[in-house]
Amino acid sequence: MTDYHKFDDIRPYTDDEIPAAMQRIVSDPYFPQVAQYVYPDRTLQEVKDIMLGCRNIYEFQTIVMKQVNEQVIARTTDGLTYGGVERIDPSKRYLFISNHRDIVLDSCLLMYVLHTNGHKIGEITFGSNLMKGQMVIDIGKSNKMFKVERGGNPRELYATSVHLSEYIRYTITQKMESVWIAQRNGRTKDGIDRTDQGLVKMLSMSGGKDRVKALAELNIVPVSVSYEWESCDILKTLELYASRDGKPYVKKPGEDLNSILTGITQPKGRVHIEICEQLTADDLNAIPADCADAQFRHSVAELIDRRICGSYRLFPNAYIAHDLRSGTGRYADYYTNEQHDAFVGHLSELDKFVSDPALRDIFLGIYANPIDN
Predict the structure, then answer these.
(1) CA separation (Å) from 83 to 26, 31, 115, 231, 277?
(2) pTM score, whole prediction
(3) pLDDT tens, 144-168?
(4) Which residues neighbour 107 within 8 Å (Cβ) at sequence distance 6 or greater?
(5) Are residues 40 and 93 in the same domain?
(6) Smaller CB count within 10 Å for the chain: N or C?
(7) 125: which strand partners?
(8) Domain span at residue 188?
């Protein structure tokens, strides 16, 4: 049995830590703004009472976070749809590996879908670069988010990877909690969803020498999330433009928080979440047993990618962007004139930044690349 305190540096809060966290949250100077968004029809004191009434994680998630998700869905989407819930068993725990388009909503909306379909809400990875500010930390750790360390020298990165791998395995096999993790560090910014082989390596570190067993016991389930209007599309375009030709991109102070808030509040159109088929031991055993470990990890990543990309929901914007980028009408049957004009109108927002065809091409690629995937 693993000592739970071994993971105190990264784990979420326990039930005993929730009352103090709620007190800190309602005392934060930014709390009134958050309260007004989440509970627009309540007074500040009423929202404080709701928060302070949460005595454990379950109450915080099913009262407050449920309300957060419902407000986001109602106010910023044209509907959330999902599929594949029948592929998972409420009595089992899984490692959900998802493509990553929005910092917060990819995982939170999946957990909302799981909860509304009778599944236990799982734990969520959250980059240490994002855990800044006491209120963000308190909300995140009260919502079963655990820290993934970013940065460090090679020796430090190896140690933190082993630690993370051990915690994920411990959470799924001993705590009996599911886990959400992105298929790569950071969001997909160019519309190309690809699983980092380093993720597969990290997950295997705590599983012993049998590489198939090490992954099979985690019950890996790929998840594909699709937004009609890509989360932070303008911000992603500007970041890719600034880092073109291999130039290093240096984030400005507060940029991560701005991306979180933009992703939550901007219009998203339709949103779809597809829970894909689990990677079984048979799937993993189909990879040649004599292949090197690096090739094995590559093959596992490809298995995940095929399921995520194959389940990605292509909305009209993808076809519009592809036609605009190629200068053809190849996919004209997949969208209306009104949808085309709305997309072009949004595209024109780039003009306020810089007039460069490269900027436009990057933006179009974010939407068009999933078709080529």
Answers:
(1) 36, 35, 14, 21, 11
(2) 0.95
(3) 999 999 888 999 999 999 999 999 9
(4) 98, 124, 125, 180
(5) yes
(6) N
(7) 146
(8) 4-313
